[in-house]
Amino acid sequence: MIKISGVRIVVIGGGSSYTPELMSGLLKAQDLPVESVTLVDVPEGKEKLETVRLFCQRLIDEAGSSIQLQTALDRHEALAQADFVLSQFRAGGLEARARDERIPLRYGAIGQETVGAGGFANALRTIPVTIGLARELESANPDAWLINFTNPSGMVTEALLRHTRVRSIGLCNVPITIERTIAQALQVPPEAVSLDFFGLNHLSFARGVYVNGKNITPLVLEFLKSPQTQVANIPDQQWDRDVLDAVGMLPNPYLQYYWNPGEMLSREQSAMAAGKGTRANEVMAVEKSLFQAYQDPGQRTLPEALMQRGGAYYSTVAVMLIESLALNRRREIVVNVRNGHALPELPESSVVEVPAVVDGRGAVALECGPMPASVRGLIQQVKAYEELTIEAAMTGSRKTALTALMNNPLVPSAGAAAKILEDILQENAAFLPQFAV
Could you confirm whether domain 7-171 is CATH 3.40.50.2000? Predict the structure, then answer.
């Protein structure tokens, strides 16, 4: 357990447009004694890092807080002093994300940054960098916690737990967004809402939704049958009534890619044909406006455009987790954590996205019981894909990489998988030295 005298936080990817939202959440955390926040980034991101630092300092000053804010381009010293390391970086930046989204589209496959072949490319670049960070943390500061937001969060967290000894927990804002959206719709306090939740990151389900212990799942499913948006990264959704009635569970919004792949692919292809590019191009435009706002000395609150970035409740769930770990505050939180016996149909060493009991000792997944047959096969297939992707990222094996893509349900054929893999390796060669011949 961390000493309550003062919590020191290091943010890897500190120059991200998400960072001010995180800082805002830390400033609102009255029970969490934050001593310092150090924003770390690569030298190429020095200008953005300084812009974010200046804006975050204005947020600190406006709140009358005593948090010490620092920046660093060399992470070693910062890691050695940290109680918590928050990872939120993107290997290759938004330009790499744009490639991840474009390449699959060439071969009739969905282009998305965390699922499908795009998520695969992202994982190949990101996992080795994260492992390097973790091994440095193991050596410099083995008692620190590494909280992973870096996408694809589930795979990155599993790689950390399989290949390092670092104390790590993965987070995603989708579960808490679902929870808070329901609370707002029903005008009840967030703590009144609880979810019977299970699955993998971006492939999960709420088997039951409860308000003050009352099961309101049918009401929520009825709400989902009308167009609505819960996650900014995904277009407006309208779930098919028959599908929801058949499954009887609240699906993670990313299930649109698995259950409506034709429609989602058509939308992406139409956007490309119209010259709009992919979601990465939209994010670049949002980021441009955000950094313009951050550079304005008169800007002392979070700009409204930040909600378009896709990080709703990012800081809320991060603060909840840090409070539980630092203050030994026992709490149930949906996290990406070692499976154990939570989902018996998956390997114990797998990382799953389930409710876990979190306190000063860490997070322990709660047993969720058997998965319904209606979704069990899809989850098992995607978990096999994730295991193979992690192995490929660590070993640089092209054979393993190909079998990973062949196991991804969003890749249409083995032939498409081979072509997509070749393009990914060629266009990301600078980031994938493990695959060099």
Answer: no
